[in-house]
Structure formats: C-alpha cells, structure tokens
Amino acid sequence: MRLVGLENAMNRSYEEYSLGMRARLAIARALIHDPPVLFLDEPTIGLDPISAREVRELVRRLKREGKAILFTSHNLWEVEEVCDRVGIISNGRMIIEGSPRDIKDMLGLKYVVEVEVQLNGRVETIRVETTNPADSLRRVINDAEARGLNIIRVRINEPSLEEAFVKVVKNEGE
Predict the structure, then answer these.
(1) Computed from CA positions of residues 73, 77, 81, 86, in that sequence, does the dihedral angle turn out positive or negative?
(2) What does the mean pLDDT of the chain come to?
(3) DSSP-derived secondary structure letter, 132
(4) How far apart are CA 174 and CA 43, in angstroms?
(5) How do residues 84-111 score in pLDDT, each as one tens digit?
(6) Entry pTM
(7) Right CATH number for 110-158 from 3.10.20, 2.60.40, 1.50.10, 1.20.1300?
C-alpha cells in the first residue's frame, strides 16, 4: 500500500476510494506476489488527469526498479509516455513493434518544423515537413536571417505514435 501511495487509506472501505485510488489498489493487488511480469490493462481509463499522472509515474517507477510491465491502452500518447517498446496489433496480429521512435522511423513519419518570422510588422509561419529536423531548422533559420526576417518563435513537432498507428492500420486494411 505504501508503494502505491495508499498507506493512509488502508482502513477505509473500498467504496470510499476514488477511481484513482482504486486504480492504484489494483496495481498493489497485482504486485502482492511480486510477479516477474505485471499486466496492466488500461490502468488509467476513466481517471482524472491528476490520478492518471500518478498511475503513469508509478508505472515508470516500477519500470526503473526492473519490473517488466505489459501495458495496454488505446491512449497512444500515454503509451508513448511510459513504454520503451510498443507493439501495434490489428485484427489479432502484431503488425509492427519496436521503440516508439523506431516505429515512427520505420514508417517514414515526418517532423514538422515551424518558424514564425516577422518583417515590417507582418508575421508569417514557415513550415517544413522533414525526417531530419535539426538540419531543416538550421536551413530555415539561415534563410530567414539572410532575408532579414526576425525570428519570433521556433517549434518542432515530433510525429505521434497515433499517426504511426493510423498509418500502419490503414496499410493493413488495404
């Protein structure tokens, strides 16, 4: 109970627990016998943002402590946040697996480099899709400076695991 932050609620009945407390209790129950692999199926579903964050942090801590965790979720942002290796399953078959970064690279997903510039009070955004954001950003900045543009803001958007999922599942269906 201490590990999952419920030591102060041990004497309360289950019905008094919030959804977040119930999720942490489920993890505690799964850990009781110190299994070599922990199976967590949608552990944050229905949780408020604070409780979901606490569960994700607990999962990260267990991972750092050497626990093997099979984490299933439809929330791909969350999967990307906590998982070292990912498998995308469609129609009961593993379609692709690897680190989130490797999966995105295998699928050729692109970063989006955006540089907001200003000249004579007019603001524009230069947008470049690329697989090499560092080189593209250097080129855009050098070009903007050569043209006398003031750089206001720079943003690099990494492709998401959700984009990878959509691409791989659509390709599977074709």
Answers:
(1) positive
(2) 90
(3) -
(4) 32
(5) 999 999 888 999 999 999 999 999 999 9
(6) 0.75
(7) 3.10.20
